[in-house]
Design brief:
The protein has a domain of 188 residues: D-Amino Acid Oxidase, subunit A, domain 2 (D-Amino Acid Oxidase, Chain A, domain 2), CATH 3.30.9. The longest helix has 21 residues. The strands form four sheets. An eight-stranded mixed beta sheet has the order 3-4-2-11-12-13-10-14, with helices on both faces. A three-stranded antiparallel beta sheet has the order 6-7-8, with no helix packed on it. The chain has a three-stranded mixed beta sheet with strand order 9-16-15. By secondary structure, it is of the alpha+beta class. Helix 1 crosses helix 7. Helix content is 29%, strand content 25%. The protein is globular, with a radius of gyration of 21 Å.
Length: 355
C-alpha cells in the first residue's frame, strides 16, 4: 500500500490555498487527519505545527496579503505577522531582510506511509478489497457506459470506475477515450538526521530563483521538522522536469541546501540521511481535475493533484463518496456544486497562486 507517489510525499497538510474548492476540501482533510487517532486508534504521526509562508520581498508580501482576503472569507485561521512578531513564531529564521509572513496554526503534517496503512486497514474492515501489482490494461465500455476494467490478471465489473492514477492518469483516462491535460513532473525531497525540536511550522518560501550558469532555477521550496525530530525538505524545480523518471539527481542537494541555509542558518551543519524523487501530476492551472465526465457514464476523475494528493485525498474522498453512492440527494448536490470549478471542462486560464 502507498507504493506509488504516496511514499514520496513529505506529509504537509494545509487548507491555506487560493482556490475556494481546494480550501474546503482540505478543511475536511484536516478534520480527518487531526481526529484519526481518537476515532480509530491508529497513530498516523499527526502534528499540528502550522504553515508559515515567509516574505523577504515586497512581491511576496503583496501576494500573501491579497490571498488573506480569500482565505479568511472561508474561515481559515491565518494572519499576517510583521518582522518582530514573526520571529517570535519562528526564532530561527534569518532576520536579515525579513518583512514578515503568514501563519496558519491549524495546519500540520502526518506520515504518508502510516496514514496509507491506517486507511487501508479501516477500509478492509468496511469490506473493501485491494489488488496490488495488477496494472489496468483496458476499460470495459458498453453503449457509452464504463462497466468494468481489465488488468493483466483478471477482469472486474464495476458500477463506477474512479481514475485516481496520479502520474499515469492521462494514460488511464485514454483507455476510456478521455483526454485529460495531466502531465507529471518530478520533484526531489530529502530528510536529515534527527535533532532536538526547534521548529514548529512548515516553512514555505515562494520566491523564484532564475536559472543561470551558476545556479539551477527553482520556484518555491519548503521544509519542516518531523515529529521524529528530522528535517524534511523539498523544492520545485524551474523549469519543470517533465516525465516519470524518479532517479535522484546530483543537482538537488546543493540547490536546496543553499536556499535552506539562507533562510535558516542554523541548519548548515545538519546531516542529510537520504533523498528521493517523486511525481507531481500537473494540470495547466495547478488545480485538480475532479468529477464526472461527459464522454462516458459511470466514470469519475480524481486526477491532477499537482503534488497535493496526500493533503487533498481524505477530504476529496468524502465528496466523491456522495457522487458514487448517491445515498443522499442533498449531499450529492452539494458535492457537485463544490467540485464544479474542478471539472475537466473548465477554463484552465486562472492559476492556483500557492501550488
Amino acid at each position: 500500500v502507498g507504493q506509488g507517489s504516496n511514499k514520496c510525499a513529505i506529509g504537509g497538510i494545509r487548507a491555506t490555498h487560493s482556490d475556494p474548492a481546494k480550501i474546503q476540501i482540505c478543511l475536511k482533510s484536516l478534520d480527518i487527519f487531526s481526529t484519526w487517532k481518537d476515532r480509530y486508534g491508529d497513530d498516523i504521526g499527526w502534528l499540528r505545527g502550522g504553515y508559515a509562508f515567509v516574505a523577504y520581498r515586497e512581491t511576496e508580501e503583496k501576494t500573501l496579503k491579497e490571498l488573506l482576503i480569500i482565505q479568511k472569507s472561508y474561515g481559515l485561521d491565518i494572519d499576517w505577522h510583521d518582522h518582530d512578531e514573526y520571529l517570535k513564531i519562528i526564532p530561527s529564521l534569518n532576520p536579515n531582510g525579513l518583512i514578515g509572513g503568514t501563519f496558519s496554526p491549524g495546519d500540520g503534517s502526518a506520515s504518508p506511509m502510516l496514514s496509507a496503512l491506517a486507511f487501508e486497514r479501516q477500509a478492509r474492515k468496511c469490506g473493501a478489497e485491494f489488488h496490488y501489482n495488477e496494472p489496468v490494461t483496458d476499460m470495459i465500455r458498453t453503449n457509452g457506459t464504463v462497466t468494468g476494467v481489465k488488468t493483466e490478471k483478471d477482469t472486474y465489473s464495476a458500477s463506477v470506475v474512479v481514475n485516481a492514477a496520479g502520474g499515469w492518469a492521462k494514460e488511464v483516462a485514454a483507455l476510456a477515450g478521455i483526454d485529460v491535460p495531466v502531465n507529471p513532473d518530478s520533484h526531489e525531497a530529502g530528510i536529515t538526521e534527527p535533532v532536538a525540536p526547534f521548529l514548529g511550522p512548515m516553512v514555505v518560501d515562494i520566491r523564484p530563483i532564475v536559472e543561470s550558469k551558476e545556479t539551477p532555477g527553482s520556484a518555491n521550496y519548503y521544509f519542516y521538522q518531523h515529529h521524529t525530530g528530522q528535517i524534511i525538505f523539498c523544492i520545485t524545480p524551474n523549469p519543470s522536469i517533465w516525465g516519470t523518471d524518479c532517479r535522484e539527481t546530483s543537482v538537488f542537494l546543493p540547490q536546496v541546501t543553499q536556499r535552506m541555509i539562507g533562510i535558516m542558518p542554523r541548519l548548515k551543519n545538519i546531516k542529510v540521511r537520504r533523498t528521493w524523487r517523486g511525481l507531481y501530476p500537473m494540470t495547466p492551472d495547478g488545480n485538480p481535475i475532479v468529477g464526472e465526465v461527459e464522454e462516458v457514464e459511470n466514470y469519475i476523475l480524481a486526477v491532477g493533484m499537482c503534488g497535493q494528493g496526500y493533503m487533498l485525498g481524505p477530504g476529496l474522498a468524502v465528496y466523491l463518496r456522495y457522487l458514487i453512492t448517491k445515498e443522499s440527494k442533498s449531499n450529492r448536490k452539494d458535492s457537485l456544486e463544490l467540485l464544479k470549478p474542478l471539472t475537466l471542462y473548465r477554463d484552465f486560464g486562472k492559476k492556483e497562486a500557492l501550488k
